[in-house]
Amino acid sequence: MTENMAPDHATAELSAWVGASAILFDLDGVLTPTATVHEQAWQELFESYLASQPHVAGYSESDYFDHIDGKPRFDGVRDFLASRGIVLPEGPTDDDPANLTVQGLGNRKNGIFNDIVGAGVEPFEGSVRFLEAVLERGLKVAVVSSSRNAPAVLAAAGLSGHFRVVVDGVVAAREGLPGKPSPATYEYAATLLDLPSGECVVVEDAVSGVQAGSAGSFHSVVGVDRGAGRQTLFDAGATVVVNDLDELL
Description:
- By secondary structure, the chain is α/β, with parallel strands linked by helices.
- The chain has helices at about 10-15, 35-50, 60-70, 75-85, 100-115, 125-135, 150-155, 170-175, 185-190, 205-215, 230-235; strands spanning about 20-25, 140-145, 165, 200-205, 220-225, 240.
- β5 (about 220-225), α11 (about 230-235) and β6 (about 240) form a beta-alpha-beta unit.
- α2 (about 35-50) crosses α5 (about 100-115), α3 packs across α4 (about 75-85) and α4 (about 75-85) crosses α5 (about 100-115).
- The chain is globular.
- The two termini are about 30 Å apart.
């Protein structure tokens, strides 16, 4: 893929959201450091599961970014298992976390995640500064997250009051929207804000999320490098990549 690096990165940072009417934020890894909590929960889940599969390669750090990061929970389960040549029964949506099904493993991971998040969440300071600046300038905002825990995470981080529009995994399932890397959830958020996609900026830290923004007709796609890699996010379609959102101010 051709590199998408702008020749004048500082200019690109400043122009990434100039003229936009709304900012569509991913949650985990963009507004809150809960991406690392998700990563920890997935690792705990699959290390435990793979311990009963002695002839299958163990879980590694790269598995999270290669197969899971940014995807709806059950897609993450399926894609990781597929990487090991494993196919499990689907199971009902509310399957018991003890059951060895796609839904059971996904629900087990959700329990691990909620146990960790229950202790509280501190949002990224730079992201809060950017969010406050965006709101002061009169732009609309929304959260678009693959997680079904977005409202709980926003509440734990003290950010719920800023977002009247939250498109999370529950909303996506209810509306029949495909998950990232499809742009559908971001496009739905733009619709709820009564704006065309071309007036909305997508802000993402995951490759699948950046791909979702790039696949739609959005104003721009801001990649936040929390570990995926700067060039990786450019290659996925980011307009600009920053280490923290206050670099855009």
